Amino acid sequence: MPVAIITGASRGLGLALATGLAGAGWQLVVDARGAEDLAGAVKEIEWGAHGQVVGLAGDVTDAEHRRALVAAAGRLGGLDLLVNNAGILGPSPQPALADYPLDALREVYEVNVVAPLALIQLALPALRARHGAVVTVTSDAAVEAYPGWGGYGSAKAAAEQASRVLAAEEPDLRVWWVDPGDLRTRMHQEAFPGEDISDRPLPGTVVPAFRRLLTEAPASGRIRLADLLTGAAR
Asked: Can you give the residue ranges of every domain in the chain?
């Protein structure tokens, strides 16, 4: 069975992706900062799983936790896929760059850029051995200039550029920076405090597109899941 690490899997997109892959026969190592939330998520993922699901509570900015994630994947037999999904929005409501607290900006970069790269560095030997794939979840805020999105958007832009360079440096791997689109998640609600976001699709709606991505395995690059939804297997 193939093995994947998915970070930030206690809710939202991470939970949806983990549930979808577990049902497709993947073995998983999943994490989240909250132990109680993660335990509940693991039970949900295991409901339709065909392989083992290992949950490790911890913060991706912690080096020891990152080592534990990679070690757990090794105990499952190796590593075929790393999904860097964990991330933070930053202050809510989001401030203009002129007023952005620099300590908060450093945290946004630490979680959304530095920690994912650190996890990639640890995972690379196992991924190279299996000619695996790296997915970094991104956003259209990385490529569009939306007022108020300077902190999060610039962090995602940095993560995308890191992915581009990684793809050039690791031609035997697939490296995708994946834009799932606007989804009905807690983070998206934090981005629009007090607004009704019920018109956004639920995270599970993009899982067929993500599974299509893994099946077709296109060349490394930027992927919009909306472009893969047409004809995606359900």
From this structure: 3-229
Per the annotation, the verdict on 152 as an active-site residue is yes
The single residue listed with the structure tokens 């037999």 is: 77
Which of 100, 109, 146, 152 is catalytic? The answer is 152
H-state helical runs in the chain? 12-23, 35-46, 63-75, 102-109, 115-129, 150-169, 186-191, 207-216, 225-229
Cβ neighbours of residue 34 under 8 Å, at least 6 residues apart? 10, 57
Say if residues 151 and 99 touch (Cβ distance below 8 Å): no
> For residues 73 and 126, what is the distance between their CA atoms, to the nearest angstrom?
9
SS3 label, residue 33: coil
Let me know if domain 3-229 sits in CATH 3.40.50.720. yes
**CA 143 – CA 155 distance, rounded (Å):** 11
Successive 10-residue mean pLDDT values, the chain, 234 residues: 97 96 97 97 92 97 98 98 97 96 98 98 98 98 96 98 98 97 75 80 92 97 93 46
